[in-house]
Model the fold of this input.
Amino acid sequence: MTKAGLRVLVTNDDGIHAPALELLAREAERRLGPVTVIAPDRERSGVAHGLTIRQPLRAIEVGAARWAVEGTPTDCVNLAFLGLLDEPPQLVLSGINGGYNLGEDLTYSGTVAAAMEGRLFGVPSVAVSCAVGADHRALERAAAITCRLAEEVLDEEIPSDLFLNVNVPPEPCGLRVTRQGRRRCRQGLIRRQDPKGQEIFWLTLAGASWAEDPRADHHAVAEGMVSVTPLHADLTFRGALEQLAGWEGELELLG
Ligand code: MN
Done:
């Protein structure tokens, strides 16, 4: 596939006003081709692969090739492919998220889900995240790395259902291809009363305690390496297929 003039969709889950979104869009425009930004009109972190199907979607044109959507990142990708644009994108970039997307966090991430949706629409897709509060220089470097990796996934030899989850630490000293890590602890819960005396709950982010795995995404980032995790949308646990195959003949399992 020729890279010059590639139609690129840039989206995120931090919303249309996140500065890192525009930074990634500009870098992609410079290196890959004409960019359209379609992003949620507000922060939608944690919405995962949510799709809005019970209410209408409004897309407001907020600038040249810039759209704000009252919906999720996955909604934004759908609009791009299903008719908002004259021609569908040929590449989807999602980010740069403010905060790493590592381990099981991928399953909550709107950033990663937007890249998954791009892949489900049949085009190469990359999700990218940096540390919370990453400075301009770190974000610029992450944008450049993302565009470089996007060129790699445009290679026709790359499996057609693969998309990338990329995490870029502030001063990367190398790049490692990783697998999704596992947390040891889950979210915490804060319990309070609101000013009217009603009990309220607040989920807090999990602590950074990880199961030891030198090939995991979190391990690479902790060592200052860019983490590149190949993902696909197929959730099948292939390792269990053989073990469970014996159930097929067991009619008592059907009650
Ligand atoms: Mn986010």
Notes: The CA atoms of residues 16 and 39 lie 5 Å apart.
